[in-house]
């Protein structure tokens, strides 16, 4: 797209350079945290395998394949997914979640041995004072359990990511104690969790920079920082982008934002935004819609019609002025122009296309476009008849309704 056609206020002045300073990774939680959503179903293993392959194809770096300590079925599913990664030589890498209990980490070690690939252990425990009060935990008890779990996993030869739940409401001195103990015990990553969707972008900056400064002071810049956000304030995706800008090495999300309560940050929307600001390089995200559709069907989680990029109405219009502009752009032979003249997201980039319907706010251009796209030859009488039907309606006409008019008028294809 010619930069003279769009003045981008997003880049006129920024908090910091547009290009992220270092390589970052994307982590998927659909098959673990996402399944904690109270309204979804746990997919079959075949469905999980399809989701795994699609995540790999859109360029997601790591995936939480589940909690193998949750029971026999969970263990078998995790093992099958890990074997699929190994057998198919997928680029995506597996992780497993579990409490800071040996009973949760031992099954991870067994899966890694059986699958023959390393599995990143994501061992979690609450760190906020409100959680400690509810659980009757002292800081020393949290530290002790953390050290025991991390040390065990390290002895088993597994990489460890130490996850402090509710990090965004935890005291700095407590995080200092727990992070230091975790690194001393062999953890190679720290996950900062906005478990209840509390934080704002200012909080993201403060927490990520606080953690980075600790690692610097301890001579441990190699320790990775993950960001795990929830969407209770509707800031999940925004906070994830901020986390990367402020120095996180990896951000977490779930497809369609599934997860506890209102869900995790939407990984598909994170991918969309990173692609649009030029941070995904040549990663092909044209299968993003297929991935979202598969997750929706497998989890029985409907996609809202107005959901960004993959919702039914994301690139659909019935408004005459909007449709006319898109049609004029297409008549110039410029698909990119047509995609951008009334859309902030180019549909082609994500495997979609502009859709023009016929409704009460439509004009003749809508009808002509609809007919030509479906192989019908527009005539003045046919266009007028369809438009008259649309003006009497209170909705966009369905294909069946338009074809009913065509049959009555005697339109030919």
| Number of continuous helical runs | 15
Inertia-based shape? elongated
Largest sheet: 8 strands, parallel, barrel
Give the distance, in angstroms, between the N- and C-terminal Cα atoms. 35 Å
Taken in chain order, the helices and strands follow as: EHEHEHEHHEHEHEHEHHEHHEHHH
- Residues in helix, %: 40-55%
Rg for CA atoms = 25 Å
Q: Which consecutive residue ranges, at least 5 long each, have pLDDT under 50?
A: none
What's the arrangement of strands in the largest beta sheet? 1-2-3-4-5-6-7-8
Percentage of residues in DSSP E strands: 5-15%
Mean pLDDT: 93
Structural class: alpha/beta
DSSP strand count? 10
Describe this structure in words.
The structure is a single chain. With 413 residues, this protein is of the alpha/beta class. α8 crosses α9.
Keywords for this structure?
alpha/beta, 413 residues, elongated, 44% helix, 15 helices
Task: Show the helix and strand layout.
Layout: E1 25-28, H1 45-57, E2 62-64, H2 72-87, E3 93-99, H3 102-115, E4 120-126, H4 129-135, H5 139-155, E5 160-165, H6 172-184, E6 189-194, H7 201-217, E7 224-229, H8 236-245, E8 250-253, H9 267-276, H10 288-299, E9 316-317, H11 320-331, H12 335-340, E10 355-356, H13 364-373, H14 380-392, H15 399-409
Parallel strand pairs: 1-2, 1-8, 2-3, 3-4, 4-5, 5-6, 6-7, 7-8, 9-10
Brief summary of the model shown:
By secondary structure, this protein is α/β, with parallel strands linked by helices. It has helices at 45-57, 72-87, 102-115, 129-135, 139-155, 172-184, 201-217, 236-245, 267-276, 288-299, 320-331, 335-340, 364-373, 380-392, 399-409, and strands at residues 25-28, 62-64, 93-99, 120-126, 160-165, 189-194, 224-229, 250-253, 316-317, 355-356.
